[in-house]
Structures are given as structure tokens and as C-alpha cells.
Amino acid sequence: MLTLLFKFLPDFTSGPLCKVSWFPCKAGLCPQSCAAAEPDRRLRPAGSQNRHPSEASRSLESTSSPASCKRVTPVCLKHHQPPGSVSPAKRQITEVKETKITINCVTFPLPGEGPEQQLLKPNEWSYCDYFWADRKDPQGAAHVTGFEVLLQKQLKGKQLQKEMAEFIHERIKIEEEYAKNLSKLSLSPLAAQEEGTLGEAWTQLKKSLHDEAEVHLKFSNKLHTEVEKPLLTFRGDNFKKDLKKYDHHIADLRKQLASRFAGVEKARKALADRQKDLEVKTQQLEIKLSNKTEEDIKKARRKSTQAGDDLMRCLDLYNQTQSKWFEEMVTTSMELERLEVERVEWVQQHLRQYTTLRHETDMFNQSTVEPVDQLLQSMDPAKDRELWVKENKTGEVRPVDLDI
Q1: Which among 243, 248, 252, 263 could disulfide-bond with 314, CB atoms 3.0 to 4.6 Å apart, if both were Cys?
Q2: Per its UniProt record, what InterPro entries does this chain match (predicted)?
């Protein structure tokens, strides 16, 4: 009877692997037709149509273990060898080098593996090229995503701009206090009795203090309206709300990606369990030949095939979700880049306005002292002496010798 049974079993020692049952087959000899499996290819992501579900399992194993980048994974699983094949001890194991690694549910190529990636915006140091990985949080959290780093940059920029406005405000207060003190000093009675050309120069110098005070007061007013206020009001409270929208959107996509990856891991484990179950039942057939065992093998084979299909569907959903996250990351990071350029240019514009006002103030201050310079140049000590003598002389007749 044993000879009769194996007479009708297919030759499992040669021929390609069946795409459905994952057993060696020759045309028409596998339990299910390979042709019937062709429509299922459309469920698989690009580049995986010809991949065996067990290969998908191995691929996921290679991308789900960050700590074992150098580990190699057997290609041939035990259940590939049905009754009549070589014993498990003599099976050949083919080893392949892992080329991908999954970190925090995001899959990356291993360094030096696969084609070299080109930057999306070469030579621009663009946000969209350098913030894909996560990094450890210095404050103790598990990790900070690259997108969160970009958001922190935006929030820090707004805070620094607020501090710049506070700095300008302090400068304004100094100018106002300076103007007040200059105006007060210009009214001082000190040396008010000076006469002549020197007295005129001294009076003009005190008046120039009053004029200079007016210049500094105008400078402080322009600093407030043309520098401080624009820096302070640039991007109001709605800006933080917009950043939160970006944050929630990208965070939701990462959560979806984590959920899809968990589904892939679950499906991969289910496939491994089905493969193990099929192997056990196959070994039982070698020991005990019965119709029930053969029926169990058929059921186990169908479940294993279904588990492989489920794994491929989960893998397809994961890749689709990661692709969507990738696209949104590129779009949103470039928007944040644009906002940062806009902020820097805005600050540059108004700091230039500060220097312009400062030069104008110097020019106006110069104009206030020009009359003083002119009077100082026209000062004449001889003329001053003449004027003073005329006003204060006590007599022109000189004394003479006394005669007896």
C-alpha cells in the first residue's frame, strides 16, 4: 500500500515551487493550480509579484530587527520539503545578507546596500533631505522625530524674534531717557553769564542739546513703529495653531505606520505558525499514513497559503502608508523651510531699518552741532576783550607821580 501511495504522489524532489501551496510542482501536479494564483499578484506591492510569501516573511524579518544588522536569514524553510524529500538534517540552507532595517516602524536601507540614494534638493541643505530618522531626546524621552525637530526650530525662531523685539524695546527706553536728560540739561543755568563770542558759542551748544534730544526722541518713536512692533507682531497666535495642525497630521501618519507595521509583524508570526503546523503534519504523514492525516495536510496547506496572502496584503498596506507619510513629510518640511526663510528675511529687513534710522540719527545729530562748530571757529578773544572792556571799564586816565 505504501508503494501504491507514493506512486500517485507528485515528485517533490524536483521542479519549481508552487506559488500557492509553496511545494515543488510540475505542470498540473501541485494541489492547486499555479495559474489560479496569478490573479493574487495584483494584491502585492510593486517589485514583489514574483516573490514567494516565504521570501516576504524573510524580508520582514530582515527589516524588523535593528539590533541584528549583520544577521543572515535562511531562505529555505523546512516545510518546503514534503514527504519523499531529503531528511531535515540534510537540507541545504541558503543565506542572504540583509539589506534593510526598520527603526521605529520606518524602513531604511542599510549603509552600502542597494543603489545610492540621491538628495531631493542637492546642494541646498533642504529640510526635506535631512530629517527622516528619529533621534534620542536629550530630556529623557524615548525619541524625537525629525519632523518634531523642524517644529522646534519654528517655535524657537518665534521666541528668538520676540527676544529681539524686547531688545529693541530696551534700546527705545534708553533713547527716551537720553532725550529727556538732554532736554533737561539744555535748560541748565550753568555758565549762562558767559559773554562775547564765547558766550554765543556756549549758548548755541546748550541749544544743540535740546535739538539733539528732539532727534533721539524721534529716533525712539521710529524704532517702536518701524522695528519693534513689526518684529513683535510677525505671525500672531494663529501661527502656533498652524504648527499644531502640521504636528498632528504627521503624528497621525506615524501612528498609522506603526499600526500597519504591527499588522505585518502579526501576519508574519501567523505565517510562521502555519508553516510550523504544516511541517508537523507532514512529519506525521511520514510516520502514520491515514486519510485523516492527508486531509489535515491539505487544510494546513490552505491555511498556510492564506497566511501568506494575508502577509502580502499587510505588507502592501504598510508600504502604502509609508509612501503617504513620505510624501507628506516632503511637502510639509518644505513648507516649514519656506516659513523659516520668510522669517529670516523679515528680521533682516527690519534690522536694516534699524541701521538706517541709526545713520539718520547720526546725521541729524551732526546737523545740531554744526552751528556750534561755526561759532567756535568765529570766536575772537580780542573782540571778546574789547566788548568786555567797553562794558566794564572803570576809567581810561592812568595814575601819575605825586608832586610836593
Answers
A1: 263
A2: AH/BAR_dom_sf (IPR027267), F_BAR_dom (IPR031160), FCH_dom (IPR001060), GAS7_F-BAR (IPR037957)
Residue 100 has pLDDT above 60, yes or no: yes
pLDDT at 169 over 60: yes
Nearest to 117 by CA among 105, 100, 102: 100
The residue assigned the cell 546737523 is 367
Give the model's pLDDT for residue 133: 94
- Which residues, including other chains, have CB under 8 Å from residue 139's CB and lie 6 or more apart? none
User: b or e along 131-145 (b: 16 or more beta carbons within 10 Å of the residue's beta carbon)?
Assistant: beebeeeeeeeeebb
Nearest to 109 by CA among 80, 86, 132: 132
Query: Cβ distance 337 to 151 under 8 Å?
Result: no
The number of CA neighbours under 13 Å toward the Cβ of 197 is 14
Amino acid at 44: R
Per-residue pLDDT, 280: 85
- Give the pLDDT band (50/70/90) at residue 285: confident
Q: What is the mean pLDDT of the chain?
A: 79
Closest of 154, 150, 174 to residue 234, by C-alpha: 154
Residue 138 reports pLDDT greater than 90:
no
- Report residue 189: phi and psi, to 5°: -80, 0
The pLDDT tens digits for 350-378 are: 999 999 999 999 999 899 889 999 999 99
| Apex 36 CA angle, 34 and 38, nearest 5 | 80
**Residue 290: HSE in the Cβ half-sphere, 13 Å Cα cutoff:** 8
Query: Which among 162, 129, 163 has a CA at the least distance from the CA of 146?
Result: 129
Length of the chain: 404
How many whole angstroms separate alpha carbon 17 and alpha carbon 26?
9
List 17's β-bridge partners, or say none. 24
Number of H helices, E strands in the chain: 10, 4
Domains, the chain, in order of start with CATH, read: 116-379 (1.20.1270.60)
Neighbours of 73 (CB within 10 A): 17
CA 309 from centroid of its chain's CA atoms: 37
Report H helices in 45-119. 53-63
- Distance of CA 291 to CAs 3, 58, 131, 298, Å? 16, 33, 59, 11
